[in-house]
Design goal:
single chain, alpha/beta, TIM Barrel, Double Stranded RNA Binding Domain, 3 domains, eight-stranded parallel beta barrel, four-stranded antiparallel β-sheet, 18 helices, 19 strands, 19% strand, elongated, disordered N terminus
Length: 560
């Protein structure tokens, strides 16, 4: 791929800097034709992506995601295979009642079965009668696949393709022919794979999609093949690319194909898909829109909403977000090493390929024993705390000492903010602990473990009543006790709750005597925050994190 300085402000970057939400497809200088080449974006998450392990979209999930893709500005949305299952059939019926506003709806299907005509094949008839204006028709492009998998002759396969495409085109559908196993087939018998493409094109296919079905083709080989296909067909013949990620090259292969002549890029959000997944549109879209000056996506595509779209798909799919995912991951613009943070403070481009805001993400400064003064200063500024040079050094020294003990603040911003504020003006906590007791009881084999806690706190010199509570576990019981104790003084604590609880054993070599680090995520329904605690005793560590969580919440609500 050609090198390009994304910070040289091509039109897409300039648009983001000016606050625009979409990337323009206006012309810009090009050595060849002075035009930016428009690349169509095709999402197949609702079908191909749903084949990924552990992913099972409901009908309502698919409708919600289809709307999100449409709002984002996707050109084509492949909603599924009508007739293949009740859910997909119902989805297409629902999209008749409430059509997409921008994207073209695509239905997926396969060439008709051998031994019957196209007009008698139920699958093709269902596609022809579907509400989709575009049909993605898959057919074998590998001689070996035809003979060994379909069990028919190469000539018969060409007939199936010809008749199927003609039948759908006659029904008024735009047909994208997905040449399955194309790159494998081309390596084995290039002549036959090209015949498959010519047959589909002559029968009325509008776009020929080259599929790296096994994900085996490396980008430079894929680029060479695409160039050869372009040369073998009349100028302007629309080609698409569909890559799987078995070699971890799906994104690279897709971008190489675009540079070699493909005008349609297929993929899934977050790379969801079978085996190792599909080409990740969350990486493909910003690469084309922001980093390839001779290419563009539709002006309706909201590149600055990409991170939000990515996280929606993780949420609906009930799949854990990948923090190291390029562009949209939580760590994509996270800086931890002191030297890196110092450089970013002077010039963000030094360790960031693009502006985080261009894809709707944000910069993070992570704190650890690797941090320097710049890290502390920038993080403090991010949290709304002003530090002078002397205080910065004091906080840094305290931070390094605590990190050496086993604390970790990079995922506990709330605890770090409290540490900052305590260093600036030592204040008493809004409440003080008089004492707590936690009891865990197991009454017999097969019986559920019972957890109960009692607790007493002091607020402004006033003692609370001794509170008791049962919980799903000792920390849950302690949390309920604390909030019951504080409600009479701070009614708002009833709004907050624990969202997640993580435990990490430090220095595990010493076994049960090791320090335990506890990270608690809390929420009040509006904001979320994280706190950390450390002790040889897991309950004590949990108490520290819990106390910080409540103290941070109270400080936030009382404007401190």
């Amino acid at each position: 791929m050609q090198s390009f300085d994304v910070f040289a402000s091509p039109p897409a970057i300039t648009a983001v800097k000016k606050g625009l939400t979409t990337c323009p497809i206006t012309t810009m200088p090009n050595k060849k034709d002075n035009l930016r080449k428009y690349i169509r974006l095709y999402d197949c998450t609702l079908r191909d992506g749903a084949q990924g392990p552990g992913i099972n979209f409901s009908l309502q999930d698919k409708l919600r995601l289809a709307r999100a893709l449409d709002d984002f500005g996707m050109d084509y949305i492949e909603a599924g295979w009508p007739g293949a299952n009740p859910k997909d059939t119902a989805l297409f019926e629902a999209l008749v009642q409430s059509p997409l506003k921008h994207a073209k709806l695509v239905a997926f299907g396969a060439t008709h079965h051998a031994g019957i005509s196209a007009s008698k094949d139920l699958g093709l008839v269902t596609l022809a009668n579907s509400s989709a204006g575009v049909i993605a028709l898959v057919g074998k492009a590998s001689r070996r696949q035809v003979e060994e998998v379909l069990g028919i002759s190469p000539a018969e396969n060409l007939k199936l393709i010809r008749d199927s495409v003609k039948f759908l085109a006659k029904a008024g559908k735009e047909v994208f022919f997905d040449a399955e196993h194309f790159f494998d087939g081309y390596r084995e018998d290039a002549s036959y794979s090209l015949k498959v493409l010519r047959t589909a094109l002559d029968a009325g296919a509008s776009t020929l999609v080259l599929c790296d079905t096994n994900g085996a083709t490396l980008p430079y080989d894929l680029a060479d093949t695409v160039k050869e296909v372009v040369a073998a067909f009349p100028a302007g013949t629309p080609l698409g690319i569909h890559c799987h990620n078995d070699s971890d090259c799906a994104v690279g292969g897709t971008l190489a194909a675009v540079r070699s002549g493909c005008v349609l890029a297929q993929g899934t959000i977050n790379g969801f898909g079978e085996r190792c997944g599909n080409a990740n549109l969350c990486s493909i879209i910003p690469a084309i829109a922001l980093k390839m000056p001779n290419y563009a996506v539709d002006k309706a595509v909201k590149v600055s909403s990409l991170t939000q779209l990515s996280r929606l798909f993780y949420e609906v799919a009930v799949v854990r977000e990948q923090p190291q995912q390029p562009y949209v991951g939580a760590n994509a613009f996270a800086h931890k090493a002191g030297l890196h943070v110092a450089a970013v403070a002077k010039n963000t481009h030094s360790f960031e390929q693009i502006s985080p805001e261009a894809v709707g993400n944000h910069r993070q400064i992570l704190l650890s024993e690797l941090s320097g003064s710049s890290s502390v200063s920038l993080k403090a500024k991010e949290l709304g705390v002003k530090l002078d040079a002397k205080k910065t050094k004091m906080v840094l020294a305290d931070l390094k000492q605590r990190e050496a003990q086993g604390y970790s603040f990079e995922a506990a911003d709330a605890s770090f903010k409290l540490l900052l504020e305590r260093s600036l003006s030592p204040q008493k906590s809004p409440f003080e602990l008089d004492g707590f007791r936690v009891i865990i009881e197991k009454r017999g084999p097969g019986e559920k473990c019972l957890s109960a806690a009692t607790l007493k706190v002091r607020v402004n010199g006033r003692e609370s009543e001794i509170m008791a509570a049962e919980g799903e576990g000792p920390v849950d019981a302690l949390d309920k006790c604390l909030r019951k104790s504080l409600t009479q003084f701070f009614p708002e604590v009833s709004k907050m709750k624990l969202r997640d609880f993580k435990v990490r054993i430090i220095d595990g070599a010493v076994g049960t005597a090791a320090h335990t680090r506890v990270l608690i995520d809390s929420t009040d329904g509006q904001q979320e925050w994280s706190t950390v605690g450390l002790s040889e005793n897991i309950i004590e560590a949990a108490w520290q994190a819990l106390q910080d969580s409540v103290e941070f919440f109270l400080a936030s609500n009382h404007g401190e």
